[in-house]
Design brief:
Length: 717
Amino acid sequence: MADKTPVDSLTEDQAAQELARLAGLIAAANTAYHTQDAPEISDAEYDALKRRNAEIEARFPHLKRADSPSDQVGAAPADGFAKIRHVVPMLSLGNAFEDEDVTDFVARAAKYLGMDAAGIALTAEPKIDGLSLSLRYENGALVHAATRGDGTTGENVTANARTIADIPQVLTDAPEVLEVRGEVYMSHADFDALNDGITAQNEDLLAQGKKPRATFANPRNAAAGSLRQLDPDITRARPLRFFAYAWGDLSSPLADTQYEAIQALGRFGFSINPLTRLCATVDEALSHYREIETQRATLGYDIDGVVYKVNRLDLQDRLGFRSTTPRWAIAHKFPAELAWTTLEAIDIQVGRTGALSPVARLKPVTVGGVVVSNATLHNEDYIQGRDSKGAEIRGGKDIRVGDWVQVYRAGDVIPKVADVDLSKRPQDAVPYVFPTVCPECGSDAVREEGDAVRRCMGGIICPAQAVEKLKHFVSRKAFDIDGLGAKQIEMFYDDPDLAIREPADIFTLAQRDGQNLTKLKNRKGWGDQSAANLFAAIEDRRKIPFGRLLFALGIRHVGEAASNLIANHYGDWATFETAITAASDFEGEAWQELVSIDGVGAVMARSLVGTFAQPDERRSIDALVAELDIEAAEKPDTIGSPVAGMTVVFTGTLEKMTRAEAKARAEKLGAKVAGSVSAKTDLLVAGPGAGSKAKKAAELGVRTIDEDGWLALIDGA
């Protein structure tokens, strides 16, 4: 149950599999405590798991799981909630921690739009620390309510939502279809009263010789757990509230601006936050942030920052979305809090890609109301008092076991060691020597030139890497197999009879179980039904989208967005596999096609091709693919598109739209956008200053048009 790689050192892939591991551990702890009244871990251990989960979600909000422990109090109902697929995805927000991050956010939006940043007004509103909820109204009547879940699919909590006084059952003068989105929360006063009631009940339970119930840790967990009760009467008895701040599916626009649309929600009868402001400039937005920060302790409900949104909705539409976050909104988190404590040990954790990550084991200390016992030390340079370029940090002070260290929680959640007090350093403290061999398998740990991280070279012989790869494979954004989480992967990996050592073993598990005398159903924690449910869940995942499979393989540098980008380019697995095999010498037409994909650089391409060229890796992938039905990438609706299927390259200066906006529009119309000109290029859009690409296009006979020609070509599409 020990913590793995420090949160600050996690890659996106590692974060996804770690969230899966934590979800499994916390769910098991919840069941033991709340359902079976037989806790298996201490409160401190449980809190440590919940904190780590929150830290990862804060750093990677787009990876938050539908079964996120942050949205749960107690055990989830055995039969769960029905699922609702969001018509418009409920995405997370990017984070800003400094004023400069907010200025950069506006500058990026302005650059994307080709505008002056001074012309972009923002709304600023408190970021409520609660549970996101989407309410769908049709013809004025509430038809269903859903949690955010994984952003695409949430839990149907309609019956519970109907018990919240702030949520209207019927709307007047609203659009025919209106999805209202907001945050369910609990006020401080109501939270205290709820916990006081539990404490009073516990006195009676103790008098009867029964185990007392745990009080809620904080208002957010209380609100989340209350909304997710199977019995709506329990939710009705809890004092939940709701702030509306956004919308999803609409049959007609609410207004022309974010601010006016929020006011419209208020007129429909929803509670909207009174601290929402329209700010003409970045400076006004930052000023309002500081105003809200000064009121934070007296608001009566929890907030953890301020959310800024581009006010004009037409600009929001143009800015659109990245793979997991909108370009037109950002969350400005409140600053970290500091504390001093003793560094008791430095442990090394080995991640899925072999990265050796140092973790500070601290004498527990309260930082911002949370007990912290672990913190990231980033890498060996950071421990030695240097940055990745060799320059001094912390005045060149190294970090040693026994040191008196300053700890802070970035964005209120991520624990880090910031400084060392040399005046309190023990006389026997010695410099920390970073290991040059893997603590898990004994293989050499090598730091490649230009890399800040030292990595185990053991590959698949390293059990830590193998287990972490498998955990990533079954994580939420990958195969997401019900009943097969991090805890179960660890069990199966060590099982002598039903071993899962590589992904293909998952899909032969039922067959091997049928041939084995020591059946899964006979193992501790399993029975006939749970074993049958697992086999059915595995069978259900044999059909998998191309992009999701590629992401699940956990190839270094190839994250979720890149996996989908590559899948969309090649279309189907067979075409992709043929092309990657042909590119194994890192040259030739297949290699050039891969690196020409806009968004795929040489580093990512080498990692991808190198993985498929490695015999053991390729054998493992081929064995897995033989067990699967891989769905081709979903093609965009390109009916009437004049550029569907074409490979387009943009070069030079575009004057009527930015390069990023042009690329997004081309891809939406079904074109493939490449970063370089080749014989496969169908069209070059050349603005002023076009150089070598225009010359090469002329040599290859590639059709070339200017920006006006491009706009005329796609006009009306």
